Amino acid sequence: MGKWKTLLFLLIAATLVLAACGDNETEANADGYRLVEKGKLTYAASGLYKPFNFEENGELTGFDMEIGAEIAKRMGLEPNPVTNPFETILQGLVSNKYDAIIGSMAYTKKRAEQAAFTQPYYYSGGMIWVAEDNNDIQSPEDLKGKKIGVIAQSTYEEPAKELEGDIQYYSSDIVALKDLTVENRLDAVITADIVGFEAQDNGFAIKEVGTPLWVEQPSIAVKKDNEELRDAIDKALQEIIDDGTYEEISQKWFGRNLLDIDLENAELLE
Question: Which of 77, 116, 81 has its CA nearest to residue 102?
Fold first, then answer.
């Protein structure tokens, strides 16, 4: 009898452990989607991608954060922004650490294998940046063998490899650009055109090389099996675009509308 009691105890304990390690999501609400915390839209960004998402005075702010807050508002939810290193941000989504990624993650077919994506909420070009006094690098071909800074697990990594450069990995574009201009540890940085132009406005002595290598489509990612949430976010996003709220936020941070781009001859990153 003692053995059976022991076995029963072990089975109960195992069940409790599995429950604790299981799905973190609440049950589906009336709209059919699930949330990790009831009544809140929990969305993640690296917090290191100024001016899109960054910390200031202990608070997360930036373009991504304001877009996320407006989307949550339209969904009748409380915005709950959190940070996660960009190189593991998709893994965090898959393991239910948060509901969505609103952190300037571009849609790619490879990422779409792990997550469901909304329509793009802005467009951005992948650009090569060098120090202002660098006249040796005039084209992508000049990067062969050169030290190129990129964000780990970003869309800039594969193109940098194709250019046969010596890739140096970073968690922050700002740190990479400082290593380019102040520390002289890099020959070039590949990042978004918007980020580079913003850095120029903030005193970084850098310049772009040629035109953008491609146009990418930053979109909002949710779990692949939670498409109802993706659709609800898409609906809220379209509402803020249609009523002019998106335009106001974009003008505030960039002085232009980041969705206003000629895609006819653009090479879209897939």
Answer: 81
| Cα separation, 243 vs 124, whole angstroms | 23
Q: How many CB atoms lie within 10 A of CB 172?
A: 16
Query: How many other CB atoms are there within 10 angstroms of residue 171's CB atom?
Result: 15
| Residue 68: φ, ψ to 5° | -60, -40
Nearest to 237 by CA among 43, 51, 49, 96: 43
**Residue pLDDT, tens place only, 159-201:** 888 888 899 999 999 999 999 998 789 999 999 888 999 899 8
In this prediction the pTM is 0.77
Q: Are 219 and 269 in contact (CB under 8 A)?
A: no
Q: Is the separation of the CB atoms in 171 and 152 below 8 Å?
A: yes
Q: Name the phi and psi angles at 15, rounded to 5.
A: -60, -45
Bridge partners (DSSP) of residue 101 are 44, 221
How many angstroms separate the CA atoms of 232 and 71, rounded?
9
At 244, list the tokens.
Answer: 């002019």
Residues 130-141 have a mean pLDDT of 94
Distance from C-alpha of 182 to C-alpha of 201, rounded to nearest angstrom? 16
Task: Report the 3 state secondary structure along 86-120.
Answer: HHHHHHHHHCCCCCEECCCCECCCCHHHCEEEEEE
